[in-house]
């Protein structure tokens, strides 16, 4: 048989494939060739003629798919620590936003930064995710709110993906907030997003998906639908920020009508919206960092989503105002403690279901032959420990596209 590039031996596999919660395969092995998984199974079933240029002794560690952070605002300038202090003194998110803070404050800082500065500011956040075994990150625009600044954000995101061992998928979020120069003219701004900004950025190859913030402090369902129509005309997939602060008139259901990859936040999701997501096969992306940071009390309807079979993903929502979180491991713990997800559900939410939320489930998110060899080898006795620990990173080895990027005390032959 042809030689493999690399063979993991003496590992336990949490494949997240099939019907069993973790997709566990104990005492296993996994082979990689040309950047993809080519064989996995029980070690006792390894072909006798199996040969690999490199072998790794997992010594009973757990091998999982590379983690996926499927909702971030990672590229931005500045921070909003002062707003954090104001919220602790009693100001609400809406009050801060209406007073010119919130997203607009980050817009001012981001507009003032050039592309190089945006890359430099964002790289430490990305590096922290990579150090925790993250191999794919979604990065949104939405802090420029005019063409040149949105372009700089998306170009910075592409640069991060080109210069770090991580897959970056970009999302155009021009419909994130109303910029000050369009005060009182939201429809005019949406026309600019749809007719000018999105087509230009799409032509430049900077957009993988399109998002909108459908909420009473942002854009109406009608304005959101105009963005979705523009995306559909370019054959771009859509996603939505919806039902975070209120039942905003059916943002999730609207997205489902457009076959959205996912709807995100969803604390105020109605039964009708949940049913629409189920019918469309859209993913519900839950963001416990924002829930925690804003001290929200309205839980997303996890039981209803489960009952309807809606896939649930988990993400950091890394952003300067409502979730300054760059630890997907901490987001896992929060999802279990705050949202009552089972650890297997939470871990599926940063692997299989996160890949689905990005439209990448065909090559990411599970350990299966033919998938890309994005993997994490963990110093744990059971996968639940990735959700259990606080402030502890048990990653032993990270593999990206078949190449090892970071290894501790793992024996390599």
Task: Tell me what the structure shows.
The protein is of the alpha/beta class and 413 residues long. Helix content is 36%, strand content 23%. The chain has helices at residues 81-88, 93-98, 103-111, 115-131, 147-163, 186-203, 221-233, 251-257, 271-280, 288-293, 302-308, 328-339, 343-349, 352-357, 385-388, and strands at residues 4-14, 24-33, 36-42, 52-57, 62-65, 67-69, 134-140, 167-175, 209-214, 239-242, 262-265, 283-286, 312-314, 375-378, 395-400, 403-407, 411-412. Strands 1, 2, 3, 4, 5, 14, 15, 16 and 17 form a nine-stranded mixed β-sheet that branches. An eight-stranded parallel β-sheet has the order 6-7-8-9-10-11-12-13. Strand 9 (209-214), helix 7 and strand 10 (239-242) form a beta-alpha-beta unit. Helix 4 (115-131) crosses helix 5, helix 6 packs parallel to helix 7 and helix 8 (251-257) runs parallel beside helix 9 (271-280). Pathway: Amino-acid degradation; L-histidine degradation into L-glutamate; N-formimidoyl-L-glutamate from L-histidine: step 3/3. Its EC number is 3.5.2.7. Fe(3+) binds at residues 71, 73, 241, 317. Its cofactor is Zn(2+); Fe(3+). Residues 63-380 form the Amidohydrolase-related domain.
């Amino acid at each position: 048989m042809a030689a493999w590039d690399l063979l993991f031996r003496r590992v336990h596999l949490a494949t997240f494939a099939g019907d069993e919660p973790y997709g566990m395969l104990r005492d296993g092995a996994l082979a990689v060739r040309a950047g993809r998984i080519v064989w996995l199974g029980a070690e006792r079933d390894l072909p006798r003629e199996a040969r690999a240029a490199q072998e790794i002794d997992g010594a009973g560690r757990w091998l999982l798919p590379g983690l996926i952070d499927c909702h971030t605002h990672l590229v931005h300038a500045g921070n909003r620590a002062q707003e954090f202090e104001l919220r602790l003194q009693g100001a609400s998110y809406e009050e801060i936003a209406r007073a010119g803070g919130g997203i607009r404050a980050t817009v001012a800082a981001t507009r003032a930064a050039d592309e190089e500065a945006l890359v430099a500011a964002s790289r430490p956040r990305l590096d922290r995710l990579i150090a925790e075994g993250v191999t794919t990150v979604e990065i949104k625009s939405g802090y420029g709110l005019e063409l040149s600044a949105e372009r700089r954000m998306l170009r910075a995101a592409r640069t991060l993906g080109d210069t770090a061992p991580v897959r970056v998928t970009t999302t155009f979020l021009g419909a994130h907030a109303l910029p000050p120069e369009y005060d009182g003219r939201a429809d005019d701004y949406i026309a600019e997003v749809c007719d000018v900004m999105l087509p230009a950025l799409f032509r430049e190859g900077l957009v993988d998906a399109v998002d909108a913030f459908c909420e009473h402090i942002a854009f109406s369902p009608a304005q959101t639908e105009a963005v979705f129509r523009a995306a559909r005309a370019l054959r771009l997939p859509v996603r939505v920020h919806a039902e975070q602060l209120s039942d905003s008139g059916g943002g999730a259901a609207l997205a489902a009508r457009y076959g959205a990859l996912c709807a995100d936040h969803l604390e105020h999701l109605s039964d009708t919206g949940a049913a629409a997501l189920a019918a469309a096969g859209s993913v519900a992306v839950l963001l416990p960092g924002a829930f925690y940071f804003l001290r929200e009390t309205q839980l997303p309807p996890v039981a209803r989503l489960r009952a309807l079979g809606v896939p649930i993903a988990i993400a950091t929502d890394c952003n300067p105002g409502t979730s300054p979180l760059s630890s997907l491991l901490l987001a896992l713990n929060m999802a279990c403690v705050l949202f009552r997800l089972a650890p297997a559900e939470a871990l599926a939410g940063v692997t299989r279901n996160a890949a689905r939320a990005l439209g990448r489930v065909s090559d990411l998110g599970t350990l299966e032959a033919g998938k890309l060899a994005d993997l994490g080898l963990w110093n744990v006795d059971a996968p639940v420990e990735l959700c259990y620990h606080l402030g502890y990173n048990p990653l032993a080895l990270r593999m990206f596209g078949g190449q090892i990027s970071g290894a501790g005390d793992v024996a390599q032959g």
